[in-house]
Amino acid sequence: MNKTVYVEMKNICKTFGVIRANRNVNFSVYEGEIHGLLGENGAGKSTLVNMLSGIYKPDSGSIFIHGEQVNIHSPKHAIKLGIGMIHQHFKLVDVLTAAENILLGNGESVFISSKNKIKSIQDVMKKYGMEVDLDKKIMDMSVSEKQTVEILKVLYRGSKILILDEPTAVLTPQETDRLFEILKSLAKAGCAIIIITHKLNEILSVTDRVTVLRHGETVSTLETGKTNIRELTELMVGKPVSLSIEKVITEKGNLLLSVKGLTALGEHNVPVLDNVTFDLYEGEILGVAGVAGSGQKELCEAIAGLYPVEKGDILFKGENIVGYSPREIIKRGVSMSFIPEDRLGMGLVPSMDMIDNMLLKDYVNQPGITINRKPAKEKAERVTKRLDIQAPSIYTPIRKLSGGNIQKVLLGREIDANPHLLITAYPVRGLDIGASYNIYDLLKEQKQKGVGILYIGEDLDVLLELCDRIMVLCDGKVTGITDSENITKEDLGLMMAGETLSSIKRGM
Amino acid sequence: MQIVKREGASKKQIILIRLIAIIAAIVVSGIFIVFLGYNPVKVYLNMVSGALGSKIRFRSTLLEMVPLVITSLGILVAFKMKFWNIGGEGQILMGAFAATYIALYVEWIPKPLVIPVMFIVGFLAGGVWGLIPAFFKAKFGANETIMTLMLNYIATQWITYLQYGPWRDPSLKGFAKIANFPDHALLPKVFGIHIGFIISLVLVAFIWWFLKKTKRGFEIAVVGESVSTARYAGMDISRVIILTMLLSGGLCGITGVIQAAGVNKTLTMNVSSGYGFTAVITTYLSGLSAPRVLVVSFLFAILLQGGSYIQSALQIPQAAADVLQGMILFCALGSEFFVRYKVRFSKNNSISSEVK
Amino acid sequence: MIPFLKNALISGTPLTFAILGAMYNEKAGNLNLGIEGMMLLGAVAGFQVAVLSQNPVLALLAAMVFGALGALIYAFLTVTLRTNQSVTGLALTIFGTGLSRFWGKRLMGMTLPESFSKNFRPLSFPFLSKIPVLGPILSVFLEQDLFVYLSYLVVILSGIYLYHTRFGLNLRAVGENTAAADASGISVTLYKYVHILLGGALCGLGGAYLSLVYVPSWQDNITSGRGWIAIALVIFTSWNPYRAFWGAFLFGGLDIVGFRIQTLNLPITINQHFLRMLPYLATILVIIIGSVRKSTSHMPPKDLGNPYFREER
User: Which of A148, A108, A143 is nearest to A125 (CA)?
Assistant: First the structure.
């Protein structure tokens, strides 16, 4: 290897409270290289690069920049070392102009004497073939303009190491192409570029090498030319664990949920759900596969009445529930639980004990103005026993439990409410095998009782074995719905990357 | 040096940290008192004996405690929801204003009913004053801190206007004052202390019960802890905010009624005299617990009462107590940090702990 | 009319300093409710030093130092120890009020010597009266004491600082988007400290104008709520130093118009207490309109009141 190493990270560890975001991560980037950092949401990519940009400090491990060991203590220090970060959520000041944002934090003269500096910004723009109106305020800009400003800001400081965190998440395909051209020309000019993404096709089209992270650990570093989507998917989503979940056969019941043409908008009016249509029957588990962030959360929330629906219908037992309040939807027997990356924050109150958390959805149904905690206490005890929850006591604040146990509390509460429709997203996120099986058993039990289950999962093997049918989402679109018997994991991977079921079938 | 979040400090640690804070405050203020040429030990002892030394003094201390307790309870329910109500002053004044209207200008109410009616309208008037910022916060996300603050001064000017204008007592020449309440509008006394004291104890129990045992109280806690969880549980967040502020302002309004009908015997600016602000601090220091509000308010009442005592006993300006109060506040606030965070002093731990 | 305008400007001068002081705090992302306290500290310290030294420069310096000391307590607590800004600000006001009253007990009844006061006499420019129209208008601004001139200087320097220097640019970024400022390599902590202290010094000056020139003697609570008006007017004048000056002028006028209205025998009388409500009512309206419209201009710095801790997650 005759190329200079620009960045080297060795045995990096970082934890936030109970969450281990990075474990012994090793990672290096060469001069003139575009290096992809691949992994699902929550795999620890952002945490890792934030340690390069001086936002976080590693708990242990070492970082070498241009061969020299450094202890990056602040963003200012990172900038001095020539590291420029383009954040996923742009770190730009809305009320300032592009030029002002680019000059921000730069220390030379006292006054912002515009002409000279504007000229040097324009020189940078010319050099790399970029264009932006420097007098425009950030708040009046389109997403891709903002991104250009972010990149310019970094280049203007002479950074040689560029980090882009999910740069294409909010771009149109055309804007993405343009961005990639810029990146390639930057690499040619000798920059080292790290690009974080979970989109496989982007990795293949723009990077030279790729490092895959899973659950905070480095899985592998590969040369992009020598790999393919299938291999990457497998690395990213996880090696097949040899498990067999006994499928319970139930008779297909009545139509329970029918979603038709569901469309919802996200930040910057980009559709996060795009014309999603599917049916779910009683006594059925419908799995939802997809790279994290493909619209799963919005789908769950839209059905539960928590996310505004732009277009389309959600028919629950024939009744259109679009526009109903969350409470009305809960009353009809729809239960939704979403385990976010930090496992807290949605559905549970961290500072309260298990009893109060059991009460969250039930308390309204009690008579009178007071709360009777007795049934909740019984419920907490029941759930603790049933799901084998490890907690000092049911009076311990949820925050102090381990992640797996927190999840069990949440799912246990939802199941205990005897719902008709159970929507559960990532219920085994971070759980060990035994605990996971526990949860699968619980879901199967519900299925036998005739409950319709919408299961959003990560592990394709589990999806294949647990679910009756699987729907694949990619960028908010359904790329296919299929019986889990007639599909391979590889094909699911292709669908997650955006290929439609019909095009795969045609290829066969 | 590295600052890390503490994963729940133990009770012992918290008590220790708080004790250190109070001692620090006493020491710093002591230095200050020495600097002014007084003996700090003597000053402190006099303050304590001035507040607790005799039956009469103790009674005055309890009287001083009443408005602090009730206002703090009002602030407490708002803070529990993370709604930063610093409009206690205004809510107190508006409560007193409404009660005064009943006491002086409504004659058709049977005399024994006058006081209950005063409490009801006082509660409502204070509540409405709290409702205004709540409405704009719930519907449009308007900043409640500034808005509640501004409403204080509108209430202040409104009361001053009444005092110098339409409600001025014409029988007092050259002296702008609102007429004294008739006897049937004054709070009755029990053991030499007006019933406001008993009301304050009842309210402490009520608020404790309300927050712990009722549905509304539960909703307040959930909204305060996590708006997104409250949404998942199907709560109507706007409604919770508005109803809670009705209660919060209403409690402050009750303080106004008690101070007007129990202490000042009329409506004056002294009815509030900073309780709205002091209560923000007592509430904060009590860690949002109703029983602890009682304790903290009692300590503050000692401070206030002791302060006015040293003025007459030692000719030390009463304001010394305010200075001491300020010092204690600073130290207590600062100690909060050590409850929430740990400071690690290991050097370069990120480098030292690796390399095999 | 001209004498009235002159007096309005004088009455607005303490407000100008206090608004700018509050503005610097808020531009750094800190809502400081201790303005009143810092003004009182400045007022009492300035008066004490004036009595002792009879030196106007020393008196103003003392006012600034004590205002800034109050601010230092606030900055240490809110920035370093991350305490709640509102509660800490209120504590600062309680402390400042108490300390100034305690200290001021000894100053009660003292007067400033002639040798001191003569430094703050209004200047006079007789030739102005010879210029038609423009002359009287200029005289409103020019025939003022040196302290008022100092306020002009501070306003103009603040304008230049905020809008034309990189420090001002960085400061605005800190208040608008602390995380972005941090990521740009700006030392957030340093900027917060410096500007909170600067704000405190300006509030101290505002207080000193009251005790040294406007009143001029010591009385308890000499600021009589001007610190709170300043907090309101920062919003009303949308964090702009030039608008702050005009806002202070306007509300300084409203403050004294109440007394004058009674002597003017106008057909409609507006009660002075309602006039005094105006700054607060105006502020509430500004907040409501801003939040209903969700507009981005004329809005507070976006990160106002949000504590910042880089590693918090």
Answer: A148
Given CA atoms C204, C206, C212, C216 in this order, what sign does their dihedral have? negative
Distance, in angstroms, between C118 CA and closest chain B CA? 32
Task: Determine contact: A76 vs chain C, CB below 8 A.
Answer: yes
Question: Which of chain C's residues have a Cβ under 8 Å away from the Cβ of A58?
Answer: none
Q: Do B228 and A400 touch (CB under 8 A)?
A: no
Beta strands in A224-364 (DSSP E): 255-265, 271-281, 285-289, 311-316, 319-320, 334-338
Residue whose C-alpha is closest to residue A220's, from A203, A242, A206? A203
Angle at C91 between CA C87 and CA C96, to 5 degrees: 150
DSSP assignment of A175-239 equals HHHHHHHHHHHHHHTT-EEEEEES-HHHHHHH-SEEEEEETTEEEEEEEGGG--HHHHHHHHH-P
What distance in Å separates the CA atoms of residue A406 and residue A410, rounded to the nearest whole number?
A: 7
C2-123+131-299 CATH pick, 3.30.530, 3.30.1300, 1.10.10, 1.10.3470? 1.10.3470
Work out the minimum CA distance from C121 to partner chain B, whole angstroms: 33
CA atoms within 13 A on the CB side of A489: 19
The answer to whether B337 and C81 are in contact (CB under 8 A) is yes
The answer, for C3 touching chain A at a CB cutoff of 8 Å, is: no
| Pick from B142, B157, B329: CB nearest C91 | B329
> Up-side HSE of residue B291: CA atoms within 13 Å toward CB?
2
Residue of C166, C190, C295 to mutate when probing chain A, most A C-beta within 10 A: C166
C97 touches chain B (CB under 8 A): yes
Question: What's CA A345's distance to the chain center, in Å?
Answer: 15
How many Cα atoms are found within 13 Å in the side-chain-facing hemisphere of B64? 23
Our separate counts of H helices and E strands in chain A read: 17, 20
Largest CA distance in chain B: 92
Cα–Cα separations (whole angstroms), residue A470 to A97, A437, A460: 47, 19, 10
Q: Are A224 and A64 in contact (CB under 8 A)?
A: no
- Mind listing the pLDDT tens digit of every residue in chain A (508 residues)? 457 889 999 999 988 766 678 889 998 999 999 999 988 766 788 889 989 988 888 989 999 999 899 999 888 899 889 999 888 778 899 889 999 899 888 777 777 766 778 888 888 888 887 888 998 999 888 878 888 899 999 888 888 899 998 887 667 667 788 889 889 988 998 889 999 887 777 888 899 999 998 888 888 899 998 988 778 877 876 655 445 667 777 777 889 999 999 999 987 778 899 999 999 999 999 999 887 778 888 999 899 888 999 999 999 998 999 989 888 898 888 887 777 655 565 788 888 999 999 998 888 888 888 888 899 999 999 988 888 788 888 888 888 777 678 888 888 888 888 889 999 888 877 666 667 777 888 888 889 888 899 999 877 778 888 899 999 998 889 999 999 888 887 788 788 877 888 877 776 5
